[in-house]
Amino acid sequence: MPQGSNRHPLDSASTSTMQQQQQQEQQQQQQQHQQQQHQQQQQQQQQRQQQQLPSNFRPAIQINGDKSTQSAHATLMARMEALRRLQQGSTSNQFISTEPSKLNPPVADAPQTDLSGIGPTGQLPPVDKSVDLDGDGALSLAEVQYAAFVHHGLSSNVIESLFNEVDKNDDGYLTSIEFNDIRPLVLAKAESAAQRYLQTVDKDHNGLLSLKEAQEYILKEYGIGNRDVERIWRLVVPNLNVEMDATMFSKLRRRIRAMSIRLARLIMKNADKNEDGHIDKREAQKIAFEQEGISAGDVNEMVMSVDDNNDGELNAPEFADFERIIRSRAIDTSKKALKVVDRDGSGTVTMDEAKRIAFDHYGFDEKILGPFFAQADENEDGQLDPVEFAGFRSVIRSKAVKNALDIMQEIDSDGDGYINNSEAVAMARRQDDMDPKETFNLFVIADQDKSGKLDKVELADFLRLVRLSAIKFATEHFKEFDMNKDKTVTIDELEELIELKYKIDRIITRQFFKKVDVDSSGDLTPGELVDFRHEIRRFVTERNSQRPYDSTKSNDQDGTRGESTEEVRKQQFISLFDQN
Questions:
Q1: Residue 383 in contact with residue 323, Cβ under 8 Å?
Q2: Backbone angles phi, psi at 435, to 5 degrees
Q3: What SMART domains does the database record attribute to this sequence (predicted)?
Q4: pLDDT tens digits, residue range 134-171?
Q5: How far is CA 311 from the centre of its chain?
Q6: 281-307: per-residue pLDDT in tens?
Q7: Spatial distance between the Cα atoms of 486 and 479, rounded to a whole number of angstroms
Q8: How far apart, in whole angstroms, are the C-alpha atoms of residue 72 and residue 173?
Q9: Cβ atoms of residues 281 and 300 within 8 Å
Q10: Most exposed among 195, 240, 255, 531, judged by the fewest C-beta atoms under 10 Å?
Q11: Rounded to a whole number, what is the distance in angstroms from the first to the last CA of the chain?
Q12: Burial of 467 by CB count in 10 Å (0-12 exposed, 13-18 middle, 19+ buried)?
């Protein structure tokens, strides 16, 4: 050692050690900086994913457990954060197939961690993003319940039991490995449900489901037509002649459910007024009343029965189940109506029978009804059974609501988009000389929500009630037009009367007669007679348009003072129209 030097022999080693420590600190700082950047990127990605969550998903309510539970959750999330960079996109739904999830190959320098944090293990694969709706890298109970409900209709209680069974560390979340454990359990529950239901729809009791049996029950429950069922059937079993066992039937049910949810979303698109992706009770009431005339009280019970997550509103899968209940109610109503309409006692409705009831209630002729009847006649046998008749009635009601909307444009004098009692009275008097008291009584019946005004659906019911009242009145006074007492009213009995009283050319009268004679029988039924009267009144009003029609006056005001309302209306009906 050189003299004068105070350097210790280990100084060089100490200096080297210090340099290494500095390098390690720099590396740690760089790693921390990279981790912070990575966390920021992940937070931004999670925010973007949350913005893309389906509008009908309600995240699970977070449970504030004790400190040990919170610590376990924090530990899991820290481990999931470390593994997050390994995750890759996946679009397949894990409840559809029984094949295990494909694991991503481990990265050489990635930390090796198990669920308990003890000892090295293989890498955790990422969770399925189609189930992980909030993008937090773990599957909550609400997310698993939602996926199982969407695809298989399994209730939340059933899934909660399975969830607790596979959630080994009781942290309230499932990793991809734990999710692989619950998938076969969910599929087994779905197949078990299919097996039980198969016993109900298997009409020949051979333990298998034929295409015909599938079409029959799917039309009844979902309103999905035979051709669509055949197309979906081929996606499960290419051969239409092969019958399905419970396993295949479970797959068919999943596809049918998916289609019903898509149809439900189409209805929700128009009915969801606040555009929150859900149907609240008030919106559900409007839908049920428009489709089937179901009262608000019954609707509230229906909503409660299908609200699987108990949030007081209906998401798309829940609304699909709500629509099934409406259809079931429609079929029950159809069976009762069938007993009235089915005059030949065949248990089905022919075109003639359907035409008669639709004409009396709504004034629809065969030209309008023909396509509707053909659409409802799924088996194309020329008759409608109770299930088909329910579909026919639904289409007819929808058409009536559309017509009511057109009429509303004409009679809504204050332009508020509703019909009040005064506007209703003016219309009923102008068309049918209906007494204001009777009009008010019908108005109250049609005013389902008791708002004092009629919307388009309520107006459709009001117009139907007014029409039925007018037909009843025409029936009671039919003999006044039957001059030769042969129980029919022909053009010969009407044209001379119309020519003398209203100076209408017989050619025009015959045109009106032909127009309203919807069954082309050469004589007018009471319903056709009401329409004939409307045509004559409309013609005279337009002809005399230089003197506006005063809706506040009776059509036969002169010479009717002191007479009863019934007598006045009788004279007015017989005279058809009197403005002179």
A1: no
A2: -65, 140
A3: EFh
A4: 888 899 999 999 999 999 999 999 999 999 999 999 99
A5: 18
A6: 999 999 999 999 898 889 999 999 999
A7: 9
A8: 11
A9: yes
A10: 240
A11: 141
A12: buried
Residue 244 φ then ψ, to 5° = -95, 140
Paired tokens of 309: 């997550």
For the domain spanning 342-409, the CATH number is: 1.10.238.10
Look at phi and psi of residue 170 and say left if phi exceeds 0, alpha if psi is from -120 to 50, else beta. Answer: left
∠ CA 307-309-313, rounded to 5°? 50
- What is the rounded distance in angstroms from the CA atom of residue 478 to the CA atom of residue 540? 22
Q: Give residue 357's region: left, alpha or beta (phi > 0; psi -120 to 50).
A: alpha
- Give burial (CB, 10 Å; 0-12/13-18/19+) of 221: middle
Query: Is the CB of residue 60 less than 8 Å from the CB of residue 140?
Result: yes
The 3-class secondary structure across 116-172, one letter per residue, is CCCCCCCCCCCCCCCCCCCCCCCEEHHHHHHHHHHHHCCCHHHHHHHHHHHCCCCCC
Using CA atoms, how far residue 114 sits from 110, 120, 380, 448, in Å, is 13, 6, 62, 62
Mean pLDDT score across all residues of the chain: 80
**Helix 246-271 / helix 226-236 crossing angle, nearest 10 deg:** 130
Distance CA 159, CA 250 (A): 17
Tokens 């003398």 -> residue: 500
CA 136 to CA 17: how far, in whole Å? 42
Sequence-distant (≥ 6) Cβ neighbours of residue 34 within 8 angstroms: none
Nearest to 394 by CA among 468, 329, 297: 329
Of the two residues 304 and 272, the one the predictor is more confident about is 304
Per residue in 74-126, pLDDT (tens digit) is: 444 544 444 443 343 333 455 555 444 433 333 334 344 343 333 334 467 88
Give the Cα separation of 88 and 127 in Å (integer): 9
Give whole-number Cα distances, 7 to 17, 99, 158, 459, 469, in Å: 16, 70, 77, 106, 120
Topology classification of domain 412-469: Recoverin; domain 1 (1.10.238)
**φ, ψ (nearest 5 deg) of residue 523:** -140, 165
Residues forming CATH 1.10.238.10 domain(s) in the chain? 342-409
Residue with tokens 């966390």: 39
With 0-12 / 13-18 / 19 or more C-beta atoms within 10 angstroms meaning exposed / middle / buried, residue 8 is: exposed
